[in-house]
Amino acid sequence: MFGSHSQKGTKTDADGLIGNKCRQNLWVYTADCMPIFFADKSTRNVATLHCGRKGLEKKIIKNLVKIFDSFGTSRDNLLVAIGPAISKEHYLVDKITLQEFYRKAENKNITVNLTKIKNDHCFSDSNHFREQNLNQLDLKRTAYRQLLNENIPHTNIDISNLCTYKFNNEFYSYRRSKTISRQWNLICS
Fold first, then answer.
1. What is the pLDDT of residues 39-94, one digit of tens each?
2. According to the model, what pLDDT value does residue 120 have?
3. Phi-psi bin for 23: left (phi > 0), alpha (psi -120 to 50), beta?
4. Entry's NCBIfam families (predicted)?
């Protein structure tokens, strides 16, 4: 959705916003999903995405880059920043979810060797740790690969190493505490 189509003082439900006017602020709120920011350093067009597992599976990054293509944006001029999101160490999923994710998000059929991961309190019935057959899913790495597949130079991509799950005093995390609270992220043109 174009930011200029939203009305002042209203919220729009969308997983992406594109700034097509100068001096426009685009806001997105996230908890464990990635805020991904795009900026064309030549035209100053900007965009933001709310991107998690489902967004990566649906190729939301590729679709947004196509919109920048329609603006005539050169890949060399496209800067991308991936903000704080859940890290792979804390995004644990079952084998089937992981296999489906890689099949859809990276067009790969993979066989996952199940490894036992000791989990924290979020996955235990009590304060005692127990072992579960869960696998780490790396959203940021997959987003990075999708950006590279769109021929965005790796030197134009910046990825935050902050984990929304781990840093409980700095960020909200749905997976950690089932909160409905979110962080607000913004980019300005």
1. 999 988 999 999 999 999 999 999 999 999 999 999 999 999 999 999 999 999 99
2. 40
3. left
4. peptidoglycan editing factor PgeF (TIGR00726)
Domain 3-88+138-188 grouped into CATH 3.60.140.10 = yes
pTM over 0.90: no
Angle CA(108)–CA(81)–CA(101) in degrees, nearest 5? 20
User: How far apart are alpha carbons 94 and 98 in whole angstroms?
Assistant: 6
- Whether residue 94 contacts residue 134, with contact meaning beta carbons closer than 8 Å, is answered with yes
pLDDT at 127 over 60: no
Q: Where are the domains of the chain?
A: 3-88+138-188, 92-137
C-beta of residue 48 within 8 angstroms of C-beta of residue 68: no
Reported as half-sphere exposure (CB side, CA atoms, 13 A), residue 74 has a value of: 5
C-alpha span between 64 and 186 (Å, rounded): 17
